[in-house]
Amino acid sequence: MSINRRRFNQLLLLSTAGTLLPSLGAKANQETPQSGGTLNFIVEPEPPTILALAHTAGGTQKVSPKITEGLLTYDFDLTPKPQLATEWSIADDGLSYTFKLRPNVKWHDGKPFTADDVAHSIELLKQVHPRGRGTFANVTKVETPDPLTAVIRLSKPAPYLLRALYAAESPIVPKHIYDNVAISDVPVNPNGSAPIGTGPFVFKEWVRGSHIILERNPNYWDAGKPYLDQIAIRFVPDGAARAAGFETGEFDIGGDNPIPLSDLERIKALPNISVDSRGYETKGDLTQLIFNLDNEYLKDVKVRRAIAHAIDLDVILNTVWYGYGHISPTPISVFLPRYYDPSIKPYAFDLKAAEQLLDEAGYKRGADGIRFKLRLTHNSYNDGFKRVIEYLKQNLARIGIAGTIDSYDFSTYIQKVYKERVFDVTAEYLGNQFDPTLGVQRVYWSKNFKLGLPFSNASHYANPEVDRLLEAASVEIDEDKRKQEFNAFQKIIADEVPVVNLIALENVTVFNKRVKNHTIGAEGVQANFAEVYIKDGQG
């Protein structure tokens, strides 16, 4: 006996009741869609690659799903819906997932989509995706009994797996492109920058520093869609210019707070502009300060605690993020209330306590008042990160730590932090996703430290008990036990402070009112935009 799709959805709805936004239905409105037109879509920063196979950068996750697809998509309450899979069932023991695949689907180069593509994609995701190493850790093999059936076999249950199969997270890629590519070469394969997919839009061009153009796929399996002729993905590093572009109608839509929060109230009051806070149910963004534990000073937990005491989270929330968020001091965001531990409090803002800890650690002030120096790093596209790092530098100076700031463009930032490791403290987002095993584990799991793997264990943190708790929670099907394991994990991180968790951000999509059907499920602007259309006479 197994759990079929309908029964699974019933159970999922029960399990998420009270913790997630209610479903608002698959359709944003009931008007007859209009065909044609170009959607000007702001994505910032420019992604390092287009395909979300080996990268979790926000820009990559917005662009990739228009070209490549996942097995599933999700309603606002995370109820799975068909995409490349039309039916699915789960064995009673949780050790196998069977997917029936959509027939008559073609890759953009005309070759047929089959179960072999699914099997090969999951193997690649397991090895090269920053979260895939955890998501698919228990997958032993993927069987393909016929061209339209894929059976995922697991060594242990993976209670989160069915929620991880959307295009931005687990894209299905063509086996015939990657079949003879060495694993080490997959992240740099040319298909990453000019992907072949099954999705509603076909890659046309990428002019670095300017735009990506996607064109309508005339052979898309969902007949009549997409409605748009073209998507012009625009890169505009200057926040004020992005705000002005929405004001003038140059830009149609952007997600993840695409304009400076200081401009948001003014822009959303314009008659042609609106905002939507839905479509972020899979994200749970949490801002963090990450310590490089290979640094001689930051190896000492007293130093890390001292720095935590030098940070006033109320100041960061209200002056950096303009109140758009919540103080969230644990590695699991307040936006994941099922697993967030509210008993854990942030380190009190206390400069005297910080100074005392530094003295106890043996780092006395020198004749110049300086104890030691740290490199403070951020990527330049995000004004919030810039201000967090500037604030940190000011407050570190008050406790005798001299900071120098390194600001990098996004691609250079990835190189410096994750490959060369030439940083001491950096500011980042952590996408919690909809489950800590998927979003959080990668940052604290010692097995996820790998040079060149972006958005993983940047601190080089290693604690056997944390590893044990994370691995146990990843296979635990008893929700109470799983919560206990995550609570114990959060307490250890709060004590050892490899990362200072700051603010759980509230994200919004800014859009011109002429753009319809842009947010029809939990993926928001990470969805495929097959149903998006532009209504004439508005905006």
Automatic annotation (TrEMBL):
Keywords: Plasmid, Signal. One of its GO terms (biological process) is peptide transport. GO terms for cellular component: ATP-binding cassette (ABC) transporter complex; outer membrane-bounded periplasmic space. It comes from the Bacteria. Residues 1-28 form the signal peptide. Residues 79-444 form the Solute-binding protein family domain. The keyword Disulfide bond does not apply. It is found in: Periplasm. GO terms for molecular function: peptide transmembrane transporter activity. InterPro entries: Peptide/Ni-bd (IPR030678), SBP_5 (IPR039424), SBP_5_dom (IPR000914), TAT_signal (IPR006311). Pfam families: SBP_bac_5. Belongs to the bacterial solute-binding protein 5 family. This is ABC transporter substrate-binding protein. It comes from Rhizobium acidisoli.
